[in-house]
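Thread title: Can someone regenerate the structure for this chain?

I was given the following input by a collaborator and told the matching structure tokens would be attached. They weren't. Posting the sequence so someone can regenerate them.
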Amino acid sequence: MNLGNAFLGAAIGYATGGPAGALAGGLQGAMGANGNTAAGNGANRLIGGMNAASEADNAALMGENLRHQSAMQWQATWFNEMMDEKSEKLRQMNELRDLDMEQRKADNAITKKFIASVNE
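Best answer:
Regenerated them for you:
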């Protein structure tokens, strides 16, 4: 039983896996794994934990990016629908304005004919 390896394994195990990792690392170090193996295994566990944390962070960032892209797409869709509605209202207003102008022309023609008939 090697106490130095047990302490080293426990320290590395605690850094990578908390109390359970400390127990596992300490037992591994004490059970005869040499210092290099214990340190190498601990470093591998540490790197594995860091990789897992990095992957989880990347997955969260990708999820946030997808949420943002979806929100932007909905915003663009709503804006386009609003602009289409506004264009339709403007077209209808122009149609009404044209009809009003035609009605005024017809009213003016009738008024001119009436005045001409009264003056005769």
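The chain has one domain: 3-119.
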